[in-house]
């Protein structure tokens, strides 16, 4: 299937992904999980959560293999790889490859996928690791949420999630996942991660940039909050449609990264905000 694991697509904290193909020639991505993961919780998490899903913006699990300590997950192959490689690059390259309209479609697609996980499937799922690396792009750049190794399943009545220790990736983890002083852990924790990711898509940079010469630009969300109109013009020139798209993405993202979970919108509300009129969007309190 994988030609002796010769075509490596990438490597992450939970294992290595190889390109392969099924007997009928259908291209697949085979994720070989790291063997040193104790009782295999991340494998069980991924199979249990993603096998319950069916949505255009969720990566499709085709099968899995469990052989002693060896664990593999088989997914549809995504020819355009992860979103990460497209956004952390030169701004002009992003615009020539994707353009603001396509970036906006990706933002909306991920929002719909998260809305489905939080509300639409049989068992509610909180992902806990939304970031550009875990958003895969098919041949048409349709986004697919992937990597459910940290996900938590909830009953439909359960809104508060109990966690032992923080989980996620630095830069995207909601404050309440670190400290319960900020509120309870819930699907709003994914909303925060989503907002941080959208701001990185808008900026083509990490939200925390210690290499920048201007201290005011070190933390990108604060810079955007103070300079939203200026940034939109700088990013889009005199393209009025693009300015509106970028402004909408920034406003929605700033709502998503509010410090207190109760101040963040649900993903259903996020979808409505993105698909609604920009005149209905107000600048939120400073995150």
TrEMBL record:
Any single GO CC term annotated in Swiss-Prot or TrEMBL for this entry: membrane
One Pfam family cited in the UniProt record for this chain: PK_Tyr_Ser-Thr
The keyword DNA-binding is assigned to this record: no
Protein name: LEAF RUST 10 DISEASE-RESISTANCE LOCUS RECEPTOR-LIKE PROTEIN KINASE-like 2.5
Recorded family membership: Belongs to the protein kinase superfamily.
Keyword GTP-binding among record annotations: no
Sample GO molecular function, one term: ATP binding
Listed Gene3D superfamilies: Phosphorylase Kinase, domain 1, Transferase(Phosphotransferase) domain 1
Gene that encodes it: LOC109705187
Residues bound to ATP: 31
